[in-house]
Amino acid sequence: MSEPQFPTTTPNAAPQMTPLNKVIFMSRWLQLPLYLGLILAQCVYVVHFWVELKDLIGAALGNEAALQHIFAAVAVPDAPPPTKLNEATIMLVVLGLIDVVMISNLLIMVIIGGYETFVSRMNLEGHPDQPEWLSHVNASVLKTKLAMAIIGISSIHLLKTFINAAAYDIKTLVAQTVIHIVFLLSAMAIAYTDRIMIGTQNQSRPH
User: Fold this and answer.
1) How many other C-beta atoms are found inside a 10 Å radius of the C-beta of residue 96?
2) In this predicted model, what pLDDT tens digit does every residue of 107-146 receive, in sequence order?
3) Per-residue pLDDT tens digits for 167-187
4) CA dihedral for 171, 173, 174, 179, sign (positive or negative)
5) Which of 37, 103, 182, 193 has the most neighbouring CB atoms within 10 Å?
6) pLDDT exceeding 90 applies to what percent of the chain?
7) Closest by alpha carbon to 191, among 140, 136, 139, 137?
8) Please, how many CA atoms are within 13 Å of residue 56, restricted to the half-sphere of its CB?
9) pLDDT band at 51 (very low <50, low <70, confident <90, very high)
10) How many domains does the chain have?
């Protein structure tokens, strides 16, 4: 007598997705044009960086047109523009270049981290150029890193204001300082909230 045949089942088989679930899950690809748009914005920042750097070098070499462009770039509204390329003017231009770089870094984190977290895996494991932070990126890590990047950008703007402090009124200086402190407190609140959530998740896991 032959033994009865039992249907074989795969214990770890993934459940079948309904058509509605498939449509909702595929909707994440609607974010792809947004990230492509941010890449184009990154290209604009690259062009802007090199234009400003070219004018700074031209101004240092005595080019009058480049010098006037630099003066207009660092001029404060309702204040007399600088008349010579001194240390403060060069510092303001360099801080502007650093500001562009930091915003570009922010764009990279949003593009790569956001795509990896919300759209699709990029399979960069083992790649020699994989960013260190990308190996453990999630929504919480991305929020914290973005908040820290915004604080860095705010610090650059605040430093530029303090260099030209004589051209600003006290209300502007206080307002920018308060805004920077708010950014700092917000980042600390985000990091603290994520720490509480991670601790709660670890406690809820079975030992």
Assistant:
1) 20
2) 988 898 888 888 888 877 777 877 776 666 667 777 777 8
3) 888 888 899 999 999 999 988
4) positive
5) 103
6) 23
7) 140
8) 19
9) very high
10) 1
The token pair that represents 109 in the structure block = 């984190």
Domain region containing 154: 30-200
Crossing angle of helices 170-204 and 139-163, rounded to 10°: 160
Alpha helices in 61-138 (DSSP H): 64-74, 87-108, 114-118
Is position 54 within any domain? yes
Does a structural domain hold residue 38? yes
Q: Where are the alpha helices (DSSP H) in the chain?
A: 19-26, 32-60, 64-74, 87-108, 114-118, 139-163, 170-204
In this prediction, residue 44 carries a pLDDT of 95
CB atoms near residue 150 (< 10 Å): 18
Is residue 183 a part of any domain in this protein? yes
Which residue is it, tokens 């600003």? Answer: 168
Residue 16 has pLDDT above 60, yes or no: yes
Residue indicated by tokens 């993934």: 14
